[in-house]
Amino acid sequence: QLQLEESGGGLVQPGGSLRVSCAAPGYILDYYTIGWFRQAPGKEREGVACISSSGGITNYADFVQGRFTISRDSAKNTVYLQMNNLKPEDTAEYHCAADKLPTPLGEDYSCSVTDESDWGSWGQGTQVIVSS
User: Fold this and answer.
1) CA gap 92, 126 in Å, rounded
2) Where would you tag: which of 40, 64, 92, 117 has the fewest CB atoms within 10 A of its CB?
3) Where are the beta strands (DSSP E) in the chain?
4) Looking at beta carbons, which pairs linking 52-56 to residues 24 or more positions away fall under 8 Å?
């Protein structure tokens, strides 16, 4: 399993922006489809967005409504989730996850964050608090 590390969380005011990062020191993250999930206090974890190994295919949860952008930087071996126009209801611990298996070379798969069982490795999470 990959060892995933999230960073970049913090306190932000409503309407503000934040970018969280997902890294995997010692692993080549480009081989994997990556997803972002979040869990708010007292609520079940929910999918936010995912990106294919090439970065060419992305998918977002409906509640994102164009506010979030998932991307990856091969040179930095990192996947990002840029969050704009944040709302108090976006307060949660954000986790990244990797597909159970690497994507075969030359392939690029679509992804979905509706089923957590599709994902194999999980990070410890980074806390995002949206509050004035």
Assistant:
1) 8
2) 117
3) 5-7, 10-12, 18-23, 34-39, 46-51, 58-60, 68-73, 78-83, 92-99, 119-122, 126-130
4) 52/103, 52/108, 52/109, 52/110, 52/111, 53/102, 53/103, 53/107, 53/108, 53/109, 54/108, 56/108
Residues forming beta bridges with residue 78, ordered by sequence position: 23, 73
Give the contacts of 13 (CB within 8 A, at least 6 positions apart): 130, 131, 132
SS3 88: helix
From CA 59, how far away is CA 2, in angstroms rounded?
Answer: 22
Closest C-alpha to 53, from 88, 104, 87: 104
Amino acid type, 115 = D
Query: Is it the case that residue 2 has pLDDT exceeding 90?
Result: no
What residue has token string 């075969």?
A: 104
